[in-house]
């Protein structure tokens, strides 16, 4: 897993996880990496300092929690994100765009959802002010369902 700091053409800054640098290049080249704020697919990597692990210990990701920092291996982080999605989000499949729009418009009860949608549908949702963003493949729950 690799985390990139990204910036879109409108200077919105965000981070995203990819299984490898080639995965980022492939997804960006196909227009699949988009800004979660404006939906632009004109996204570039920012300069980042590499995380280097020495041979005596495994690479860790540090995240703040109440009571102090916690070290989590990248594999554990992926499993925690997948478990969180399974436990807290409703899978709506290919109905994602319709469900997200209905929730946004108050036609359905507010809840956390995930599912599949096309790039064009995501762009339309963004234009309408409906918040959604694709999830890196590694974070998709093991059921094979893709999060937006």
UniProtKB/TrEMBL annotation:
Q: Where is this region: Disordered?
A: 54-73
Q: Which Pfam families match?
A: DUF1178 (PF06676)
Highest taxon of the lineage: Bacteria
Task: Report the residue ranges that make up the Putative regulatory protein FmdB zinc ribbon domain in this protein.
Answer: 1-48
Q: Which InterPro entries match?
A: DUF1178, Regulatory_FmdB_Zinc_ribbon
What protein is this chain from?
DUF1178 family protein
Can you name the source organism? Marinicauda pacifica
